[in-house]
Amino acid sequence: MQPQFFNIINDELRGSEKTHTVTDPRTEEELWPCPNATAQDFEDAVAAAQKAFVGWSKTTVAERQALLVKLAENLEEHEQELSEILAKESGKSVLFSFGVQLMASFDIKGAVAQCLYYSKTCLEDEVQYEDDNTKVVATHIPLGVVGAICPWNFPVILSNIKVVSSLVTGNCIIVKPSPFTPYAVMKWVEVARGILPPGVFQVLNGGADLGALMTLHPGIAKISFTGTIATGKRVMASCAKTLKKVTLELAGNDACIVCPDADLEKTVVSVASGGFFHSGQVCVASKRIYVHESIYDEFLDRLVKEVDRSYTINEDPTAPSMFSPLSNKLQYDTVRNIIEDCKTNGFNIVTGGKTQNVTNKGFWLPPTIVSKPPEDCWLVKEEQFGPVLPILSWSDEDEVVKRSNLANAGLGASVYSKDLVQAERIARKLEAGGVWINQFERPNFGAFFGGIKDSGFGGEMGKQGLLSYADTKCLHFAKN
Ligand code: NAD
Q1: What dotted CATH number matches 7-250+454-476?
Q2: Do the beta carbons of residue 453 and residue 297 sit within 8 Å?
């Protein structure tokens, strides 16, 4: 039976006269109609959230955390259904390395783990100053209604971090998924009805217009946005009109530095995952690989073999694979153009490179590796967000750090070396919100995550991330 989808406002299912469909990235067939939220739906959702906030903001942390456990149980109950929907809309497939499991369920399992982590973690009151005359206690109070504006690459897990952060701190939340991947998020909010008071957790489907309305509405206290740098700048400018709190999680162009003493066996496997897991459609994917010149040829040879072995195109969505089609036509065309640009400029493509008739159907591109393209080309300068990876070489530590640090991005980075002193020294010099040592970039929901420079504004995850979902109020007690 064809699944149905609804906007969820005050726990009610709402259809719409206008719907849109998403193209299945594997088959290029149109999926299911999804109702577009109207301006009135949005107004109703804000009113319901504001009403719900009155009671919800007075609940205790323990009460809210107990409900996060229920949300986790509910997600687990619906894991199969949600994973299948997510696989269809995103092109994700079965993930081999974690047992036979839908790669899409990586999103759902991650969301369960986030719910459970925050069911045990929250902001606590803190004595910030004390002397003989005074004691100052900082306490954290909810902001009100949070608007979550989300991207398409990990639809559930990236929405859920905003949901759990909002809920545990006592806020209400309206989620707007990406119009490229609305289905799993909408179904998830639908199946979660009844767990939280009506109006606390709502979802509306829409694109840039709805996102823009959210950023302007005076009834929304904070926008948590994940997406491109260009949209992030628009969101921030718009939020300024009502002085909303704003968190921006934006694009990265992560450098990965491989030192001459790196354990090549492990490093090659890890760098391949960092670059090609979900076909590079990961904000913190390794996007520029800098390999020391003394091991360059051997590294490249091993990497090509590993990529050709582990990142093959498999059109069967139930087959075990970490490699997917591009999730949508827009991104498919962008990445094809980047590969075409490499060809036009005569760069050395050592594997992949095909951009036409790769398969009969679907937005597939083969994993593509480009050896030593110039530093100022499109592939190196900008985020590719797809399965094409430049492998550059270096000889001097200061020089590679300089090349790694970009003016227009600073999300993640990675360093591979057996010498942990050297690896840490390099990591501390890299201008990024997170640096991973001897592993590819994997955000940890217990650790603060945010980009510097154009890659973000503020951040989420861990206790520090929760601070952006609260106002801090200081209580000054006179002691005598
Ligand atoms: P996008 O900026 O195109 O869209 C993101 C969201 O913003 C969508 O929901 C979209 O409908 C909405 N939107 C579009 N215009 C808007 C406007 N004017 N006002 C308000 N909302 C608007 O990004 P995308 O293509 O969906 O996501 C991919 C990008 O996200 C990549 O660059 C990736 O690196 C980045 N990303 C970053 C992180 C991170 O944590 N830093 C995580 C995942 C993805």
Answers
A1: 3.40.605.10
A2: no
Q: Which residues contact 441 (CB under 8 A, 6 or more apart)?
A: 254, 274, 282, 284, 285, 286, 412, 413, 414, 434
* Residue range(s) in the chain whose domain bears CATH number 3.40.309.10: 255-444
Which amino acid is residue 39, in one-letter code?
A
How far is ligand 1, taken at its centre, from the CA of residue 251, in Å? 8
pTM of the model: 0.97
Q: Within 6 Å (CB) of ligand 1, which residues are found?
A: 149-153, 158, 176, 178-179, 207-208, 211-212, 215, 226-228, 231, 234-235, 249-252, 283, 383, 385, 411, 451, 456
pLDDT digits (tens, 9 = 90+) for 202-260: 999 999 999 999 999 999 999 999 999 999 999 999 999 999 999 999 999 999 999 99
* Rounded distance from Cα 230 to ligand 1 centre (Å): 9
Q: Answer whether 145's CB lies under 8 Å from 134's CB.
A: no
Q: Which listed CATH number (3.40.50.300, 3.40.309.10, 3.30.70.20, 3.40.190.10) goes with 255-444?
A: 3.40.309.10
> What is the set of active-site residues?
249, 283
- In the chain, ranges of CATH 3.40.605.10 domains: 7-250+454-476
